[in-house]
TrEMBL record:
This is Outer membrane lipid asymmetry maintenance protein MlaD. Keywords: Membrane, Transmembrane, Transmembrane helix. The keyword Transmembrane helix applies. NCBIfam families: OM_asym_MlaD. The chain crosses the membrane at residues 6-25. It comes from Neotabrizicola shimadae. It comes from the Bacteria. One of its GO terms (molecular function) is phospholipid binding. Residues 37-114 form the Mce/MlaD domain.
Length: 157
């Protein structure tokens, strides 16, 4: 009987540790409650590489998360909603863009503050946007340009 109690006790400890880990992970990511934030909207031509829950950064520091991504059927642009910390007050001429962490890194949403004295209010839309740039498309353009240069020099020779 004591063997059964030991197994139940060990199972309870493992279960408590798992619940504690999930709570900690939820607080460290966007899964936790969004207290102390306000929402801003933006419309992008492409949000490739961005997902709901992704980072929103200002000067490389996480200041919010992506809360919604949906296709606008009228404009065929991707409408994004981001939750920004209340302490971050952005000028109305700020820019929002999709940046990459490098060749092998993921994408994130980057904020670049403007210089106007007026501040964006909760629910406002950031007008100045730049969507993601496809690395494959850039490589194809580069290869196409190189092939075009090489063939023209061969035909002139």
């Amino acid at each position: 009987m004591s063997e059964s109690r030991a197994e139940v006790l060990a199972g309870a400890v493992v279960l408590a540790a798992a619940v504690g880990f999930l709570l900690y992970a939820g607080q460290q990511t966007a899964m936790g409650p969004q207290g102390g934030t306000y929402e801003l909207k933006a419309s992008f031509r492409s949000v490739e590489g961005i997902t709901v829950g992704g980072d929103v950064r200002l000067a490389g520091v996480k200041v919010g998360t992506v809360t919604s991504l949906k296709l606008n059927p009228e404009t065929y642009f991707a409408d994004a909603t981001v939750a920004i910390q209340n302490a971050i007050q952005l000028p109305v001429d700020s820019t929002i863009l999709i940046s990459s962490e490098g060749l092998l890194g993921g994408n994130f949403v980057e904020l670049q503050p403007g210089g106007m004295p007026d501040i964006l209010a909760p629910g406002d839309e950031i007008e100045d946007t730049q969507g993601s740039i496809s690395l494959i498309a850039l490589l194809m353009k580069f290869v196409g340009a190189m092939a075009g240069d090489g063939s023209s020099s061969d035909s002139n020779g």
